[in-house]
Amino acid sequence: METILVRYCEIGLKSDPVRRRFEGILKRNMIDMLANDSVEAIVTRANARLYVETEDIQSAIRSLKKVFGIASLSVANICEADMESIKQLVTQVSRDNLQIGDSFAIDARRDGRNYSFTSMDLEKEIGAAVLEANSDRGVKVNLSNPDRTIFIEVRSNKAYIFTSYIRCHAGLPLGSQGRVAAYVNNERSLVSAWLMMKRGCKVSVCGDYDVSLLKKYDPHLKTFNSEGGVPDKTLGFVSGNRLEQLGDIDNGGLPVFMPTIGMNDGTINRLITQMRTDRTDAVDIVYHRI
Q: How confident is the model over 109-142, as pLDDT tens digits?
């Protein structure tokens, strides 16, 4: 059975109590987004990873890529964390992924030291097994620039085997950094609000611009009427103003955040495309660790 292995990035830099709290927020956001997209799944967390079990892998990936705080995803096969079980599963995965003449590498890591093998032991023995299992295809080892990489993560007495990292938006979990207000009247202010969401802020918006892109990332996005003042517990105001428009800001006594102030129109357009497609760059599947 395949499982989606979920990694965060910046959360791992926090102290243990803060990290656990952020992990809890991230898990709730994942469950909420999956439910909003009508994807049935079970989400668990352990040892600096979150795990998603579902029968609809592709729909779950599309949903999870909209959750801020997730750095990358991998669709993994699971086996017991002993050398023979790992060897058997990896050789099977290699037969499904390696083509005639391909070069490959084994990239292994283990969490903790309660195992009879090291990461290097895994790479050596599993690499030899893959080479033997694919001898009819003329595959070869290339550690510096392989055509294919097979990744192994050993955690909590389980081994997770996968062949790619799907890059996500990273950032901090939505709702972990308080609430801000944004007046959205053009693409630049729309991107500004989105970037604050990516930094973990819950954003309330006003203005007559289409904010459906923001609702894609926060199904519970709140709007307000500027005539009635900003919502309670608002910590700051988000502006999409340019440098020459600094004098036009009416912040109502609140701090003003301007995440796009140094960006040109090309960067704004690229971020708008990223928001619409959930692609983090030109290629959203990469073959290295995140």
A: 998 888 889 999 999 999 999 999 999 999 999 9
Q: Three-class SS of residue 109? A: strand
- CA 257-258-264 angle, to 5 degrees, is 170
Counting every residue, how long is the chain? 290
Domains of the chain, CATH where assigned? 2-71 (3.30.70.1510), 78-165 (3.30.2130.30), 179-277 (3.40.50.620)
3-state SS, residue 20: helix
Residues in Cβ contact with 133 at an 8 Å cutoff, skipping those fewer than 6 apart = 91, 94, 95
Q: CA 201, CA 181: separation in Å to the nearest integer?
A: 10
pLDDT of residue 289: 39
The DSSP output letter for 144 is S
Strands (E), the chain: 2-7, 42-46, 49-53, 72-80, 103-110, 140-141, 148-155, 158-162, 165-167, 179-183, 202-206, 222-223, 234-238, 256-257, 285-286
